[in-house]
Design goal:
Strand order of the largest sheet: 4-1-3-2-5
Order of helices and strands: EHEEHEEHH
InterPro entries: Acylphosphatase-like_dom_sf, BLUF_domain
Number of strands: 5
GO molecular function: blue light photoreceptor activity; FAD binding
Protein name: BLUF domain-containing protein
Strand content: 15-25%
Organism: Xanthocytophaga flava
Structural class: alpha+beta
Shape: globular
Number of helices: 4
Length: 143
């Protein structure tokens, strides 16, 4: 599942550190893995695990006071996990300088901006873009 949300202005860096610590502690026993990207104004998160567990977690996220306008972008089964050992990896991003770990096309940049604004994407497209933030750098980082 991929969702996006607006980051409330009272959600400080310390609050984000609490979110990550909570994910890393609580996700392992639930067998949930994924990644969280955040900016000054947005969150975008990809979660993998049991469907019922993911939907239950999503219900909790929707009521979290650090988020607003939580929108599910895509949801569906996967044949294998993309982040099997990451109970929650995280990365801060800037809307002005999107730093992907591999080359990215102008179309990919546009698609990612659409993700951030809550426009639905195919599961494979959303996942491909999120992976680009976390893949080992094989080429210079492009902004």
């Amino acid at each position: 599942m991929v969702y996006v949300s607006l980051r409330k202005s009272n959600c400080t860096t310390a609050e984000i550190e609490k979110i990550v610590a909570s994910c890393q502690k609580n996700n392992a026993p639930l067998d949930i893995t994924g990644v969280l990207l955040y900016s000054e104004t947005n969150f975008i998160q990809y979660l993998e695990g049991d469907a019922k567990t993911i939907l239950s977690l999503y219900d909790q996220i929707k009521t979290d006071p650090r988020h607003e306008q939580v929108r599910m972008i895509c949801y569906g089964p996967v044949s294998e996990r993309s982040f099997p050992s990451w109970h929650m990896a995280t990365k801060a991003i800037s809307h002005n300088e999107l730093a992907f770990r591999t080359d990215i096309t102008a179309q990919d940049k546009q698609t990612f901006k659409q993700l951030l604004t809550g426009q639905a994407q195919s599961d494979s497209r959303a996942l491909m873009l999120l992976k680009k933030f976390f893949e080992p750098a094989t080429q210079p980082v492009k902004a």
